[in-house]
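Troubleshooting entry. The earlier prediction with fe (ii) ion gave an output that would not parse, so I re-checked the input for stray whitespace and re-submitted. Clean input:
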Amino acid sequence: MALESYKIAHLSDIHCGDPRFSDELFANAVHEINAEEPHVTVICGDLTVAGYEDQFAQAKEYIDMIECPIKIVVPGNHDSRNLGYLYFESIFGSRYRMLDLQFGMQSKENFEERIKFVAVDSTKPDLNDGEVGREHYDWLKEEFTEPHTFKVFVLHHHLVSVPGTGRERNIVLDAGDVLALLRGSGVNLVLCGHKHVPYVWMLSNTLIINSGTVSTLRTRGYTPPSYNFINIMPEEVVVLTKTPGENFIEEFFFPRYPVY
Ligand SMILES: [Fe+2]
Ligand SMILES: [Fe+2]
C-alpha cells in the first residue's frame, strides 16, 4: 500500500557536556519523536561541546532513547575538536553515509519512488568553518544519479545564510559549488544545523532546512530551542518546527516538486 506521508525527525546541536545542556529538553523531544514514529531520524551534528569521549558516550545514550528504525548522524564542528572525530567514528560509524530506501510513494506518473540520503562530514578539525570539499563532488554526483528518487543531502554547516545569526561566517567555504552540484543533481531536500536557529529556504526547487538546537539554552535572542518534523506527501512538504515540551509549533508548507 502506498504511503500517505513519509516522516523525518530532524534535530541538531545536542551539545552533551555543555553547561547549558538541558536533560529535560532532550527527554521531552525524545518523548515527542517516539510518539510521532518517524521513518527516519536525522541528527545534524554538534552532539558534544568539545569532542571528548565521555561526551560522545553520553550523546550515544541519549540518541539510543529515540525509537526509530533508521538514524543518520553526522559530526559538527564541536565534535571534531580535540580529535573528537575519532570517537565519533568508533561510536557512530562512518562520517560519510549513503542510504537508498524504498520510499513507498506512488508518483503521478505511476512509478514507485525511492528516497536517498547522502550525509557528509563538513567539519575541519579544530576549526569552526566548514567545507564539503571538491574531492567529494564526483562521489556526490554519482550517489545522486538514480532516477525516480527523492534526494536528501545532510551536513552540519549551512549552505545559505540564516537570518538572526550575526555576521556571516557559517556557510561552508565551497557553498556556491555545492549548491550548483545539488541543483544539477536534482536534490530535493538539504538538512543542516549549526547556528541554533531554525530556518527554511526554498532555492531552485531544493528545500534547505536548518534545525535549531534541540536540547540546549545556547540560543540567540528570543529564538527558543527547537527541532523539526518534515512530512513528505505526494503533493507537498510540510515542515513543523517544535520546541520540546511546549505547544508552540511553526508550520510551513511547500509544493512538492516531481522527482525525475
Ligand atoms: Fe552547535
Ligand atoms: Fe556547529
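This one parsed fine. The mean pLDDT is 93.
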